[in-house]
């Protein structure tokens, strides 16, 4: 069995990814500031991923490294840490002859192309965070093009999962308190979400398949063209409540952001909610004969898990 290492093991993807990797190896190293075992045999490796020496030690002995870390949603933090972390991870993987799987998002895509995104969608970021994502993805791809590194990009749409999920924060949590659900910008626009367990399973599959490297892969995402209103209806049905909601307009994010910093950070990305957001994962689905989880089933799963943790 070969060592597979998760950098950012405690985040939204890391926990499910650790479960999925058991299908391929029993040597799984979980790396974060305070790692917690997911599987009985996991190796825990406390490390500061903003420190090059820590990254080097964490990568040593690994055959495959998964970079799935999530830093605070703050442009100042992203500018400071993301380029350096990417450079340090690449250097460590090259030094120790490890393959790298980078878990990415769609922030660098041209906003005018969100209505139908594929792996070939043009790169034209129009936000500060998007520019950072463009920069680090380009750094990785330049290394693979040079032949110095074996790597791939596993790219996800917005999450539908237990954490770091806008539908959970704005729909589930409000409905659970007896309040109206909230939606950003326009509830009549299509917005597809990647179900986190599907994303984790697919990421593990990519990391353990010989012929998929040095490419970009969209992670499996159901093709149903549900609007914000449709998602709210699914959550309300699963929670057995009325699907009442309000829409938060873009201008209001600016005001709320004066008091709630995360909303200020969301404002520049809100263009993703005022137009259709369609994420095509046909390349992955056809290569692996993979059918993404249906939205109704995904929502039921999320609601059941959140209800269990609340009780």
TrEMBL record:
Residues 6-210 form the NAD-dependent epimerase/dehydratase domain. It comes from the Bacteria. It holds the Pfam family Epimerase. SUPFAM superfamilies: NAD(P)-binding Rossmann-fold domains. InterPro entries: Epimerase_deHydtase (IPR001509), Lipid_A_modif_metabolic_enz (IPR050177), NAD(P)-bd_dom_sf (IPR036291). This is NAD-dependent dehydratase. It comes from Prolixibacter bellariivorans.
């Amino acid at each position: 069995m070969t060592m597979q290492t998760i950098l950012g093991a405690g985040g939204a993807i890391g926990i499910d990814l650790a479960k999925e990797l058991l299908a391929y190896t029993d040597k799984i190293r979980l790396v974060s500031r305070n790692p917690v075992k997911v599987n009985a045999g996991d190796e825990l490796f406390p490390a500061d991923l903003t420190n090059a020496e820590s990254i080097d030690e964490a990568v040593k002995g690994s055959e495959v490294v998964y970079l799935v870390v999530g830093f605070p949603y703050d442009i100042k933090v992203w500018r400071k840490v993301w380029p350096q972390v990417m450079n340090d991870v690449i250097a460590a993987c090259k030094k120790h002859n490890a393959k790298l799987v980078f878990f990415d998002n769609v922030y660098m895509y041209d906003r005018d192309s969100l209505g139908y995104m594929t792996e070939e969608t043009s790169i034209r970021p129009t936000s500060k965070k998007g520019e950072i994502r463009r920069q680090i993805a380009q750094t990785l791809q330049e290394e693979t093009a040079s032949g110095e590194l074996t790597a791939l990009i596993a790219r996800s749409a917005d999450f539908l999962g237990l954490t770091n999920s806008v539908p959970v924060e704005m729909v589930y949590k409000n409905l659970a308190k007896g309040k109206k659900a909230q939606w950003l910008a326009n509830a009549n626009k299509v917005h597809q979400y990647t179900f986190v367990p599907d994303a984790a399973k697919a990421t593990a599959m990519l990391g353990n398949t010989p012929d998929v490297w040095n490419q970009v892969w969209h992670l499996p995402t159901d093709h149903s063209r549900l609007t914000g209103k449709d998602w709210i209806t699914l959550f309300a049905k699963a929670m057995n409540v009325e699907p009442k909601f309000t829409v938060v307009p873009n201008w209001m994010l600016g005001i709320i952001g004066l008091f709630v910093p995360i909303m200020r950070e969301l404002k520049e990305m809100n263009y993703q909610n005022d137009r259709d957001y369609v994420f095509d994962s046909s390349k992955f689905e056809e290569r692996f004969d993979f059918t993404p989880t249906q939205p109704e089933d995904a929502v039921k799963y999320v609601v059941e898990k959140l209800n269990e943790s609340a009780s």
